[in-house]
Amino acid sequence: MKALLPVVFGTAALLSGAAFAESTNTITFKGEITEQTCSVTVNGSDAHPVVLLPTISKSELKDAASSAGLTTFTMGVSGCSVDSSTLEIKTLFIGTNVTSSGNLATSGSATNVELQLLTDASGSTIIDLSNPMAVAGISIPAGEQSGEHDYAVRYFSPTGNATAGDVVAAVQYAISYL
């Protein structure tokens, strides 16, 4: 009986650990059902859009927390049915490789540089990709079928001393009608 007791307690400990581990392996799926959907474009392109930032000198990113090359891009929707009130459409940006500061990490050869997404063409408000949330932007008045909003992107060097090279990053987006 004494030899059986450690086996029982050992088995119970293993099973409780397995149950605990299983509960942390949860995948949450989220979706949205709306009265309508619209066709989406980025800078007029509905498939594989590319936003080209200007070529800048590395000296523009020599200081810590410096930014340069503000570039706007337009998210547009069309084919919407807006009946009685204005339709406010939000955009959720999800970075494929996000830095601890909430910017897009780059996969190009330039170093000490990230890309920041901004809520509008003025570049005044940064979109924190480390905490994804839907960003307001596109507003379609009642009776209209399309709308657009300008967002922006820019080079950002958190530490300064950016090196020369190419800069490449990607972000996915989802449109929310709720």
Structure description:
- This protein is mostly beta strands and 178 residues long.
- It has one domain: Immunoglobulin-like, CATH 2.60.40.1090.
- It is 12% helix and 33% strand.
- It is built from one helix and nine strands, in the order H-E-E-E-E-E-E-E-E-E.
- The chain has one helix at residues 4-24, and strands at residues 39-42, 66-78, 87-95, 104-105, 114-118, 126-127, 135-140, 147-157, 171-176.
- Strands 1, 2, 4, 5, 6 and 8 form a six-stranded antiparallel β-sheet that branches. A three-stranded antiparallel β-sheet has the order 7-3-9, with no helix packed on it.
- The chain is globular and about 55 Å long.
- The chain starts with a helix and ends with a strand.
- The model is unreliable at 1-21 (pLDDT under 50).
- It comes from Buttiauxella noackiae ATCC 51607.
- This is Fimbrial protein.
- Residues 1-21 form the signal peptide.
- Keywords: Signal.
Offer a quick outline of the entry.
The protein has one helix at residues 4-24; strands spanning 39-42, 66-78, 87-95, 104-105, 114-118, 126-127, 135-140, 147-157, 171-176. By secondary structure, it is mainly beta. It has a single domain, classed as Immunoglobulin-like (Sandwich), CATH 2.60.40.1090.
